[in-house]
Amino acid sequence: MSGKRDKAQKKIARCLAILQRDLPDIQPSETPTKFLFIGNAGLTTNADESSLVELITRTGTSLEAIMLIPGKQYSFACFASEDQAKQAFESAHGQMDSPGASSPVYMAYVDKVPPKPAEQLTPPPGLQIVENFISEDEENMLMNLIDWGEKLGDKAEGSLLKHRQVRHFGYEFKYGSNSVDKDNPLPFGIPEALNGIVRRIVEQGWMPVPPDQLTVNKYLPGQGIPPHVDTHRSFTDEILSLSTGGGVIMDFRLGVSEKQQHHTMYLPSRSLCVMAGPARYEWTHGICPRMTDVVSGKNGIAGLHLCPRQERISFTFRKVREGECSCGNRRVCDSAIQNSGYDPNKGAASSDSISDDIQAMRLEQQHVLQVYDQIAGHFSATRYKPWPNVLEFVNSLPLGAALLDVGCGNGKYLGHNEKIFQMGCDTSYELVKICNTRGFEVLTSNCLQLPFRDATFDAVICIAVIHHLASEERRLASLKEMARVLRIGGQGLVYVWAMEQQRGKKKSAYLKQNKANRKDEGHGEYVGANATNDTDTESGKSDSFSSGLKKQVMQESPKSQVLQDAPLPVHVNRTEFVQQDMLVPWKLKPQIKKDTKEKGKNKKSDSSSNSISDNDKSSIVCDNQQPKQVESKHGNSSTAASVLCDTTVEGQEPVFHRYYHVFKQGELEALCGKLEGLKVVKSYYDEGNWCVIFEKSA
Amino acid sequence: MLTSKGIKNVKEGFPLKIQAEEVRNVDIDFDREFISRTIPKLDWNALIFAAQCVGHQEDLPETLPESYDNDEDLLKKLHHILLEVEVVNGCLECPETKRKFPISNGIPNILMILPTIVLLQVLRIQERLQELQLSVKSQTPDHRARKPQEARKSPPI
Question: Where is the composition biased (Basic and acidic residues) (chain B) (predicted)?
Fold first, then answer.
C-alpha cells in the first residue's frame, strides 16, 4: 500500500513538473483546495470526459467543472468546496480512470485552474434553445408517429443498427449531392399531426414563413451524426430541431485545428434547437457517437452529471430556399462555390474574385443604378418625410462642421442644419439634379470611390444605401470609404433595411400597409384608387397593394434576373422578408408626367423632362433584357422607360425591380466590427431599419 | 476637397484642376463664425489654385495670415469664393491621369465605376477565355497517354 503511495508521489511530481513548465502560473498546494490537477489523464491520453467524471463522482462528489486541455496529457477539475475536492482526491488519486487504461491518474491540489477560453462560454451567434416547446403528450405522439419498420430482433444486443435512421417529408434531401431536389417534392408533405407545432413555430416568430421540409432522425444510444453545415443553397436561414425521447449534447465548431472554437450545447427532451445566422451558416453541428454525455447543471442540480444516452428522435424543420444563396462565403457555401467555379480544394484563382465583383456590379447597375434614374421623379415624390432620429443626428452637429450625405437621394436630409457645411453625393444623376434645384452642393459619385480626401468630414450619413450593394465585400468597402473620409473622432450614421420587419408583436409601418390586402386576398382587384407600391419603410403614402399585381409578378416576371446562374426571387411588397437577397418591385406611377408643364413649380418636373434623353443614352441593352413595348396611355416617356424595366403588362404601369440585401439583427454591427479604427457607438432599430452610429477612432 | 484618388493607380489625385466654362455668382448670407471655423479645414494652396482656375485669385493672399480671425475683409472674400462663386459648366481634371470629370448644371460627375458596356465586354472576354481553357484541356488526354514512360511499364498480370 505504501509502495503504491510512493510510486504515486513520484509520478505526481513528474506530472507537476510538466505543469510547471506549461502553466507556471498554476501552483500546487499542500493543503486541499477546490481545484484538482489530474496528471496522466488528458486529451492526448485519450481520456474520456465521461469516464473521468464517472471516476470522480462515483463516491457521490459534486463536480462543478472538468477541463481537458487540447494537446496536453493532463486536465483539471473544479469543485464546489474543498471538502468535495478532498473526497475526490482520496478516492481517485492513483486509480485507473477507465477499465482499459494502461496507467492510473495522479492528482494534486492546485491554487487555480486555467481560465476557460471566452469563445467556449458564449454560444455561437444565432443559436438558441427553447425548452419545453412541446408537451409530454405531444412528445409521445411524435415518438409513435413513424413506423420505422423495426423488427424485434433489431433491438437485441449484437444486432444494433450501425447508423441512425432517417425519414424525409416535403422534399427529399439527397445525401450524395448534399442538396434538395427543389423541382420534385415528395408525395407527402409535413404530416398533419404536426400542424399545431408548425403553427406554433410561425406564431412565436422562429421562422418568418412555415417550413416545408421535415427530416426525422432516430438515434439509438451510441449513434450520432458527423459535424456538418446544412447546405446554404437548399434551405433558408432558420433551421429548427425538435428533440423527443432523450436529451443529447450537440457539438458546435468553427475553424480548424488549434484555432478551432468549440461550444457544447445540451438539447433537453421536448426542446426546440434554433439555428440561424452564423450558427446555421458557418458553425458545424454534430452529435458524437457515444454512450454517455457529460452535462452541467441538469435538473437544477449544479455540477457535472453523467447522462447515459437514450433513444432520441429529432424532428428538423426547414424551409426550402428559392434560388441560390448569396452569402458568397466560399468556405462553406455551396452556391458560392458553384457560381464562382471555385473549388476550395484547388486553391483560389484571383480572377474569380474579380468576376464576382463584376457580377455584383452588373446586378447593381441593372437593378439599382439604372432603376433609380428611371424612377427618380416618382421616388422623390414619395420621399419627403425625414426620419426624426436621422434629423437629430444632423442637427446635433456643431457650427462649422462638415457633413457628407452618401447616397443623398433627393436631398431629404440636406438643408436642415444651417450651422454646418454639407455635401451630398449619389449615383443617380436624376436624383442629384433634384438636390441641385433645391440649392444643395451635390455631385454624382459611387459610394465605393468617394471623391474626397481622407479625413475631410466631421460627419457622414448613409441612409438606406448599402443594402443595395450586392456583395458583403462591397458593403464592407463602402463602410471603409466612409471611415476614410471621416476625420478622427468623426461620426457616421448608417441605416439599412431590416429583414425583421416585425419586432415582437409590433409590425413596422411597411408591413402595416398591407393590412387591407390581407383581408382582400384573392379578390384580384386593386383596392383603393391609388394603389402604389412600397415606400420603403415610410408610412402613410400608399394605402394598399393589389393582389392582382402580385399574381402577375409571380407569373410573368422572369425569376431568373441578371445572374443566370443565381436567380433572385422577387419579393412580395409589404410582406415579411423570406430571404436576405431579393428583388423588390417598384411600380412606376406615370402621374409625374403631368407636371412637365409646371416647370419650376414642382421639384418632380425636372426628372421627367430629362428622362427621355437619359433613356436614349441608356439604351445599352444587357444580354438578359428583352425590351418590350408598353401600350401605355401615358405617352412616349413611359415607352422610353419601358426599355429597361422588368415587367410590362398591357395598359398598366411598368414595374422595376430593385436589388436589396436586407440586413439581419447584428449584421450591420458585425460589418462595422470588421474595420479597425471604427467603433460602434450606438446600435438601434428604427421602423424596420437596423441603424448604427460609429465613430472613427484611429 | 475633391480628389480623384479613386481611380486606379492615382496616388493623391489632388487637387483637381478646375476648367470653368461657365461661372456664376449667388448670394449667400455672410456667417462670420461659420467661415472662421471652416478656414482651418482648408488646404490654402489648393484654395488659391482653385480660385485661380475660376478667375478670382487676385483677391486672396498667397499664404493664410495668422490673424485671419480678425480680418473681416479676408473673411468676406473667403465667403465669396467658397460659397458664392459656382462653376456651372466645365470640368475637373485629375492632376495625374489628366482624366476629365465633367461639371454640368453645377453638378460634377465623378462616377468612377465602369459603364455597363465595358463591364459586359470584360465578362464576355472572361467567358471566352474559360471556354478556350476548357477546350484545350479536353485535348490533352491523348497526348498524355502516349508518354514514353508509361509505354515502358509492363502490363499488370
Answer: 140-157
Query: Domain of B63: which CATH number?
Result: 2.20.25.10
What are the CB-based long-range contacts (under 8 Å, 24+) for A674-680?
Answer: A674/A476, A675/A476, A675/A479, A675/A480, A675/A483, A677/A483, A678/A479, A678/A483
Separation between Cα atoms, residue A655 and residue A588, nearest integer Å: 6
Comparing alpha-carbon positions, the chain A residue that sits nearest to B115 is A365
Residue A618 phi, psi dihedral angles, 5° rounding: -95, 35
Q: How far is B111 from chain A (nearest CA, A)?
A: 4
* pLDDT number for residue A613: 31
Whether B33 is in a domain gets the answer yes
Evaluate if residue A562 carries a pLDDT over 60.
no
Q: Is pLDDT at A239 greater than 90 in this prediction?
A: yes
Q: Does B122 touch chain A (CB under 8 A)?
A: yes
pLDDT at A320 over 70: yes
Contact assignment for A620 to B123 by CB distance below 8 Å: no
C-alpha R_g of chain B: 30
- Tell me the three state secondary structure of residue A127: strand
- Dihedral (Cα; A151, A152, A155, A160), 10-degree rounding: -40
Q: Are B100 and B93 in contact (CB under 8 A)?
A: yes
Cis peptide bond prior to A567, omega within 30° of 0: no
Quote the pTM value. Answer: 0.49
Residues in chain B with CB shorter than 8 Å from the CB of A615 are none
Determine, for residues A450 and B6 on separate chains, whether the beta-carbon distance falls below 8 Å.
yes
Classified as helix, coil or strand, A630 is coil
Alpha carbons A146 and A600: distance in angstroms, whole number? 73
**Cα distance between residue A603 and residue A381, in whole Å:** 9
User: What one-character DSSP code corresponds to residue B106?
Assistant: T
Residues in chain A within 8 Å Cβ distance of B2: 443, 451-453
- pLDDT tens for each residue of B126-153: 777 877 777 776 665 544 444 444 343 4
Is A394 in contact with A411 (CB distance < 8 Å)? no
- With respect to residue B74, please indicate whether it lies within any of the assigned structural domains: yes
| Average pLDDT value for chain B | 72
Q: Give A635-675 pLDDT, tens digit per residue.
A: 333 333 334 455 444 456 788 889 999 999 889 999 998 98
C-alpha A41/C-alpha A72 separation (Å) is: 9
pLDDT of residue B119: 64
Burial class (CB in 10 A: 0-12, 13-18, 19+), A653: buried
- Smallest CA–CA distance, residue A453 to chain B, in Å, is 6
Comparing C-alpha atoms, which of A500, A478, A485, A488 is closest to residue A672? A478
Where in the sequence is the domain holding B122, given as residue range(s)? 17-134
Question: Residue B6 above 70 pLDDT?
Answer: no
Give the single-character DSSP code of A398. P
B140 is a domain residue: no
d(CA A13, CA A5): 12
- Residues of chain A whose beta carbon is less than 8 angstroms from a beta carbon of chain B are 341, 351, 355, 358-359, 361-362, 365-366, 399-400, 402, 419, 421, 427, 429, 432-433, 436, 442-446, 448-453, 456, 620, 622-623
Report pLDDT digits (tens) over B103-128.
888 888 888 765 555 666 776 777 77
Q: Do A453 and B14 touch (CB under 8 A)?
A: yes
DSSP state of A12: H
- Structure letter (DSSP) for residue B87: E
Radius of gyration of chain A (CA): 31
Question: Which is more confident, A403 or B21?
Answer: A403
**Residue B114 placed within a domain:** yes
Question: Alpha-carbon distance A140 to A131, whole Å?
Answer: 16
